[in-house]
Specification:
four-stranded antiparallel β-sheet, 6 helices, 8 strands
Length: 260
């Protein structure tokens, strides 16, 4: 039974169920497992919490709405033409009125047709754009499900780095999986620095410090970082862009041990 539960948790079905990428039959299977196995229920609750983290980390702009199109028909005023004083046969007046009405109708229909053609072109362009947005959103959903699976992996460890007195508002969260040998980081908040300085993420090994790259405001997007096999700790330091050295005691703003 334990092996079946482990196989189910590793199948990715829970993650796809959470993002709405499952069939009706798969939905019934997932809901049955949640209702009948506390391990599955706990994993599902953890997934929901991780999804909240990812929702903040992957803010997705809402797609452009379909434009409201209003067709306005303009009415042209006509000048009243003074008729000669002499009597005009009624059929001549009727023919003139009919010709005028026909010309007016023709102009109106022409304008209407042009407006419909323009409207159709706009609709076609919008449908094309919407298809592109759907493809992008599907790609984001796939990436989100993959990240959820990574975060929900029981082998993933969570490390929170809070800033010291030099950077009290700094907060980052590292997710490290020693089995898959993968690492990700979520920059929650990053205080601004002068233009000539930057934040550097480092790994501490037994005999040296290794740079893992710059830290930037990723707008709460999880980013992969290099995995260091024998890292003892992670730290964040402030460095100068011009290459000038800084005191190791003064430039460190956050640190966390990776060893229990």
């Amino acid at each position: 039974m334990e092996e079946k539960l482990h196989t189910f948790l590793q199948s990715g079905l829970l993650e796809r169920y959470l993002v709405g990428d499952t069939s009706i039959a798969e939905n019934l299977e997932v809901e049955y497992q949640i209702d009948n196995h506390s391990e599955i229920e706990n994993a599902y609750i953890k997934l929901q919490n991780n999804l909240e983290i990812l929702a903040k980390a992957n803010a997705v702009e809402a797609p452009l709405g379909v434009l409201n199109r209003v067709l306005e028909t303009t009415k042209k005023t006509t000048k009243v033409i003074a008729m000669p004083q002499q009597k005009t046969p009624w059929y001549s007046i009727a023919a003139s009125l009919a010709a005028f009405a026909f010309a007016t109708l023709s102009i109106y229909l022409y304008q209407k047709n042009q407006a419909l053609n323009n409207e159709n072109n706009i609709v076609v362009d919008e449908i094309y754009d919407l298809r592109g947005d759907i493809d992008k959103n599907n790609s984001k959903l796939d990436a989100l499900a993959f990240q959820l699976q990574k975060l929900n992996n029981p082998d993933s460890k969570k490390y929170v780095l809070n800033g010291n007195d030099r950077a009290k508002d700094l907060k980052t969260v590292a997710y490290i999986n020693p089995v898959d040998k993968t690492s990700m980081i979520d920059v929650v908040s990053l205080p601004k620095l002068p233009e000539n300085q930057y934040y550097q993420l480092r790994a501490e090994l037994e005999d040296k410090m290794v740079s893992l790259g710059y830290l930037e405001d990723y707008q709460r997007t999880l980013k992969p970082i290099p995995y260091m096999e024998d890292a003892l700790a992670l730290s964040i330091v402030i460095q100068n862009k011009n290459g000038e050295s800084t005191s190791e005691e003064n430039n460190e703003v956050a640190e966390i041990s990776l060893k229990k």
